[in-house]
Design brief:
heterodimer; A: globular; B: 286 residues; mainly alpha; two-stranded antiparallel sheet; 12 helices; Bact_Polyamine_Transport (chain A); transport (chain A); MetI-like_sf (chain A)
Chain lengths: 275, 286
């Protein structure tokens, strides 16, 4: 049967694709337990690279910086971006409508260009005014700036999908600005806010280039630490840090899977998965 | 109105538009003694970028630009070739498996791009089974790794951007009107003809969206080329970064950044026209 042949071919392709996707990660995890400094030959199981890792203060502070940067920038970006997405929906901007197009700037701007623009800008400001010296502060500003457009677009898209009569109903019921926000906007925007939070967090954690160019000497993040370690040729320790980061990604993936499962199990008929 | 729009608009204006404008302006300054831009205004950095140095004309930078475009096109084409069957396969599985399969595709991209490159460095290093096998086939010299090389860069690019193509293509396949496909089969269309006339036009919007998501960041790539290319396959992004990271010539770097944005915009325009031509009367939103 032809159909059977195609089916088998696709299944084989799928397996090859999974090997392609997971082999690099598996290799990193595997060689992080190597007892010798090599990524070509496995000489025996050992946890020595992990022990070194936790005794290394530079790595511990890089870990803290990574988490602080991601959480702080994401919280600010969700607040500012959410408000912006709402503002673009709620108000006619008239002469300022070109502002909306600026939001697409980060989409077409390569991150290397954005990172360098930020760096030169911060340097210029710092030289003249003495503020914004490179460090965690400048990194948070840079991250918030590239996160805001994504949050605003997601929140805006959600608002556009709502029935406009809902807003009129709010008005008819004499809801004040606070009541409107508390009892109407926040509940209906919850999914959009949650997904933009996760997206912004992912963008921040995945970023290397922009952090690299806006970081100061005291504000190394884990990716930056790994980067400079590779350049010096230190591999097994890098594999160990990378393994910890891969591990945390898989914990998050597991949670998202459980959440998805819970959501579709709870309300089978209108669950997120299209039946 | 001020409360909602002002913070975001200010953030974007001050920290995105202003720095970009500053960078654009820098390209028209002259390179000073310590690599820092100084007056007077000139087109010196653009001339230099085009290859006119004090030793006469050399095509190095032009090669880098051409190589960047070529590597981007190649990686995007390979990503499309891998993503089409993957997206189709996922869309034909039972509905309850699909979210899990999509998650499996996406999860590796949640790890940092530096880590993903480290993974490939481990695989392509000298002495690994993969490198030894390549040497056995005569593809590389013995005792040499597969990285750094242009090959490793392409693998890294494909690996990085595959999910961005699978997701929009899957979305297109899920909405696919199967009756059109059945009709084509009833009319004895060959599998190629079925794909060409019934499947491809319907998945074109997904393909276009995916191409934008893949090609633009691939063209601006810095990490993969720097780690897996190691100077053998530098792209324009690395050329630009080098002018700043080693503080050698900021105006030249800024001019390179302008060229990068210009090429990106031209690429978007070409894609849009291509989408219109391929899509015929269909609306291919970009």
């Amino acid at each position: 049967m032809r159909r059977g042949g195609l089916e088998y071919a696709l299944r084989a392709f799928w397996i090859v694709l999974l090997v392609f996707l997971y082999a690099p990660l598996a290799v990193v995890v595997f060689f992080s337990f190597n007892s010798i400094n090599s990524s070509a030959r496995f000489a025996g199981f050992s946890l020595q690279w992990y022990e070194r890792l936790f005794r290394n203060e530079a790595i511990v502070s890089a870990l803290t910086n990574t988490v602080v940067l991601a959480l702080v920038s994401t919280l600010i970006a969700v607040l500012i971006g959410g408000l912006l997405g709402y503002g673009f929906y709620r108000y006619r901007l008239g002469r300022l409508s070109w502002l909306i197009w600026l939001i697409y700037l980060p989409v077409i701007m390569p991150d290397i260009v954005f990172g360098i623009a930020e760096m030169t800008f911060f340097v210029a400001i710092n030289e003249r005014l003495g503020i914004l010296s490179p460090g965690l502060g400048t990194m948070v500003i840079a991250h918030v700036t590239f996160q805001v457009p994504f949050v605003a677009l997601l929140v805006n898209a959600r608002l556009l999908s709502l029935d406009p009569q809902l807003f009129e109903a709010c008005h008819d019921l004499y809801a004040g600005p606070w009541q409107r926000a508390r009892f109407f906007l926040l509940p209906v925007l919850r999914p959009a806010i949650l997904s933009s939070f996760l997206l912004a967090l992912t963008l921040s954690i995945d970023d290397f280039v922009i952090s690299f160019f806006t970081a100061g000497p005291q504000s190394t993040t884990l990716p930056i630490y790994i980067w400079s370690a590779i350049k010096k040729g230190v591999t097994p320790e890098v594999n160990a840090i990378a393994t910890l980061m891969i591990g945390s990604v898989f914990v998050v993936a597991l949670f998202s899977l459980l959440a998805q499962h819970g959501a579709s199990g709870g309300k089978q008929s209108k669950g997120g998965t299209k039946a | 109105m001020l409360i909602t729009i002002a913070p975001g608009a200010l953030c974007i204006l001050v920290f995105l538009v202003l720095p970009s404008a500053y960078l654009v302006g820098m390209a028209f300054l002259t390179n000073g003694p310590y690599g820092l831009p100084t007056l007077p205004l000139s087109l010196q950095s653009f001339r230099e970028l085009a290859g006119f140095g004090f030793l006469g004309w050399s095509p190095g930078n032009l090669y880098t630009l051409i190589r960047s475009v070529w590597q981007t096109l190649l990686a995007t084409a390979l990503v499309i070739l891998l993503a089409y069957p993957a997206a189709y396969y996922i869309s034909t599985r039972p509905a309850r498996w699909r979210p899990l399969m999509l998650l499996v595709i996406v999860v590796p991209s949640w790890t940092n791009q530096v880590i993903r490159s480290v993974g490939w460095m481990n695989i392509f290093a000298p002495g690994t089974p993969v490198s030894d096998f390549a040497a056995l086939l005569g593809l590389t010299a013995p005792q040499m790794g597969l990285f750094p090389s242009q090959f490793a860069v392409i693998v890294g690019l494909v690996y990085n951007f595959l999910p961005f193509m699978v997701l929009p293509l899957y979305a297109a396949f899920e909405r696919l009107d199967t009756e059109q496909v059945e009709a084509a089969k009833d009319l004895f269309a060959s599998p190629v003809a079925v794909f060409r006339h019934a499947v491809f036009p319907q998945t074109l919007p997904g393909l276009m969206a995916g191409t934008v998501l893949v090609a633009i960041p691939a063209f601006g790539m810095y990490v993969v080329t720097e780690l897996l290319g190691g100077g053998k396959a530098t792209m324009i992004g690395n050329l630009v970064a080098r002018q700043f990271a080693q503080a050698s010539n900021w105006p030249l770097g800024a001019a390179g950044a302008i060229i990068m944005i210009a090429v990106t915009l031209i690429g978007l325009k070409v894609l849009r026209d291509l989408g219109r031509r391929l899509g015929g009367d269909r609306e291919v939103v970009l």
